[in-house]
Recover the amino acids of this structure.
């Protein structure tokens, strides 16, 4: 049985990850793949509890180091319980956010040094990295307005536009450094055009 592929979808708030995740899942299933859809932080009962700790608005300031460690604690659980077993049995894993979010939000947004994040990445993941990462890119104000129409802001969505500009710049930097792994799609377009572009990227992956 060959190992499955690990695909991640990334982007700033309200960029359309959930909407397009369903499109990618259906596209891959249509190719006869077993697809496991999951998300970070989360994906297992314990990791979902950590997610809610991270996203809940609270009066107590959250230490950026505590935030970073909680994210990697959830990731360790998710990898062992869901991602690795699925890949090992030949399924394709489609994950809403992964470690690129950590480089973008905790690195770009909070200012954590990339090398420190890299140490935790190696500790938790060993050499496991996504085979392909789709970055949905959007004007920050447009994404936030879409996200806010849908629900009340969580702890991250309450951050400043400047914070999200840094997150967006960090994603672009990741993509520029390893163009073979990343595909950046303009998510400010109408949904049909976004999905047309995503399908082109998936065709490449399939071939
Ligand atoms: N986080 C996470 C870290 O800081 N570090 C980490 O390592 C990790 C893993 C998780 C938070 O955790 C942080 C980052 C995040 O703040 P999340 O729920 O994964 O949060 O992320 P959000 O960005 O908050 O996800 P959302 O569910 O809010 O946004 P989506 O999934 O990007 O957007 P979606 O698909 O729900 O779309 C938003 C709205 O826009 C519409 C949709 O219908 C929907 O109403 N829409 C469009 N409208 C017009 N044109 C299009 N092209 C559209 N596409 C979607």
């Amino acid at each position: 049985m060959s190992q499955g592929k690990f695909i991640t979808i990334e982007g700033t708030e309200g960029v359309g990850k959930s909407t397009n995740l369903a499109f990618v899942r259906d596209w891959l299933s249509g190719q006869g793949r077993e697809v496991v859809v999951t998300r970070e932080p989360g994906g297992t009962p314990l990791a979902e509890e950590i997610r809610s700790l991270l996203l809940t608005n609270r009066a107590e300031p959250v230490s950026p180091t505590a935030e970073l460690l909680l994210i990697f604690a959830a990731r360790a659980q998710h990898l062992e319980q869901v991602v690795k077993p699925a890949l090992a049995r030949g399924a394709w894993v489609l994950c809403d956010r992964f470690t690129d979010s950590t480089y973008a939000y905790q690195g770009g947004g909070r200012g954590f040094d990339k090398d420190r994040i890299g140490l935790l990445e190696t500790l938790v993941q060993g050499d496991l990295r996504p085979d392909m990462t789709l970055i949905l890119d959007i004007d920050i104000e447009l994404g936030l307005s879409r996200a806010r129409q849908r629900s009340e802001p969580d702890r991250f969505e309450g951050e400043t536009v400047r914070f999200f500009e840094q997150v967006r710049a960090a994603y672009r930097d990741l993509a520029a450094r390893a163009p073979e792994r990343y595909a950046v799609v303009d998510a400010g377009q109408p949904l049909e055009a976004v999905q047309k572009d995503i399908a082109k990227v998936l065709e490449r992956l399939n071939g």
Q: What stands out?
A: The first strand starts at residue 6 and ends at 11.
